[in-house]
Amino acid sequence: GDSVTQMEGPVTLSEEAFLTINCTYTATGYPSLFWYVQYPGEGLQLLLKATKADDKGSNKGFEATYRKETTSFHLEKGSVQVSDSAVYFCALSPGGGNKLTFGTGTQLKVEL
Amino acid sequence: ETGVTQTPRHLVMGMTNKKSLKCEQHLGHNAMYWYKQSAKKPLELMFVYNFKEQTENNSVPSRFSPECPNSSHLFLHLHTLQPEDSALYLCASSPGVANEKLFFGSGTQLSVL
Predict the structure, then answer these.
(1) Which residues of chain A neighbour B94 with C-beta distances below 8 Å?
(2) pLDDT value at position A106?
(3) I need a labelling partner for B103 at 20 to 30 A (CA). Which of A39, A90, B3, B64 fits?
(4) HSE, side-chain direction, 13 A CA sphere, residue B14
């Protein structure tokens, strides 16, 4: 079946550091790929998405590129802020639609 | 604020209790979902409703009983739960089942003693 694997957290960074959170997936066909973010005490929010190979999703300074050859969708940000502290979830949807398969989430802590 | 409201925020219950979780969305969406979030595990989809009709039951034990009286409200009735059911229960909605952008509530943190 479909699955998403994320790096284990927590990831602790200093403010203005470069962020990478790894995500790889297993799926048949050509899934859409997503990053959701969960701030403390809140529900998940869609951060960015990509629907086909080589697409780059971006939002709020975060980027992720759909790499079909490596089945990856790594999340990056050039300079993190304390307000980016949250749990980040990678997810896929086979062929689009609402049946999302999520990873375990990666907690990011950004310190001054 | 995502437009999806869940109550209560926290719930502690014994294994013989009966309780209900409530979810309300003000977004005009037609699809609603229950997810279970446990530590170090992927989010688990439990139920999907589309236009008040259940379209997905992901092999959830019968001690969890969903109810969707209209497209804006979703309940999860709980009875004779087990300690391993302790988790964060998240409600979500989307414009339709063909739309993968989900809007989540803040969740109900459930502890079963």
Answers:
(1) 98
(2) 95
(3) B64
(4) 2
pLDDT higher than threshold 90 for residue A65:
yes
Who's near B99: CB < 8 A, 6+ residues apart? Answer: A97, A98, B31
Residues in chain B within 8 Å Cβ distance of A88: none
Quick one: closest CA in B to A5, which residue?
B42
For residue B100, give the DSSP letter: -
CA–CA gap between residue B2 and residue B76 (Å, rounded): 20
CB contact under 8 A, A45 and B99: no
Q: pLDDT by residue (tens digit) across A69-111?
A: 999 999 999 999 999 999 999 999 987 677 889 999 999 999 9
What is d(CA A55, CA A65) in angstroms, rounded to the nearest whole number?
6
Residues B34-74 have pLDDT tens digits of 999 998 889 999 999 999 999 988 899 999 999 999 999 99
Of the candidates A61, A56, A59, the one whose C-alpha atom is nearest the C-alpha of residue A74 is A56
Contact A104 B2 (CB under 8 A): no
